[in-house]
Amino acid sequence: MTKIEKVIYTGKTHTRINRDPKVQRADHDIVDMKLSTPGGENYEFNAIVTHPTAEQLFAGAWSACYSGALNLAASLKKITLPADTSVDIEVDVGQTGPGWFLGARFDVRLPGLAQDVAEGLVHSAHQICPYSKAVKGNIEVAVNVATR
Predict the structure, then answer these.
(1) Is residue 86 part of a domain?
(2) pLDDT in 10s for each residue of the chain, 148 residues
């Protein structure tokens, strides 16, 4: 796996479970997209520009899929996810020498859970998520888990 030496562009997303459809959404010229999983959960990635890049779309799709996997991992372990659970993914496109590569950073927020429990859920979700499995060993993925 090659590490990116020079980041050219970063696509960013913020995904959370939509539990209240009345909550204020994005401002003018940005888009909130709602995605759903095969299990029927609804997820959103918020505040992307009206003409998203491939990196934003990939990050958004991965984020929705990963959020569904996180929910499944929690249910398998009989853990209730906090209401304000969120997943932020940044997907970089960049260069190392003449080659072009992708990289990703995850910030998973699971406030109120014990750190070891949260990290276990995050790891399990990566084992379940088809996007995470597809890129495993192909791109560098950094993960940060916050419980506060």
Answers:
(1) yes
(2) 788 999 999 988 877 765 555 654 444 444 556 665 566 666 665 555 556 788 888 998 898 899 999 999 999 999 999 988 999 999 999 999 999 999 999 999 999 999 999 999 999 999 999 999 999 999 999 999 999 9
Range of the domain at 142: 6-146
Q: Does residue 48 contact residue 30 with C-beta atoms inside 8 Å?
A: yes
Give the domain CATH number at 130: 3.30.300.20
User: What is the pTM for the complete model shown?
Assistant: 0.79
Q: Is 17 left (phi over 0), alpha (psi -120 to 50) or beta?
A: beta
Is 1 a domain residue? no
